[in-house]
Please model this.
Amino acid sequence: MHGYLFTLVGIIMVVCSFTIYKDEATVKYSMLVASFFLFVFGSFIKFKTLVKLKKDMNDKLEAAQREREKEVQ
Model:
């Protein structure tokens, strides 16, 4: 969930940097750089979370398969 929040904040920063601070180059480019790091950090968190969820699902599937095999025997 936090990864999506960081990505959303990064998108808001990009929109603000081009609409609100369109005349101030220093502020605009510093916000663009900061939003890039928020995108990267948010993507890292989302990827890490998805890998963990996939591992948990695989563990649950293996446990269910073992249980079915025990029931068959």
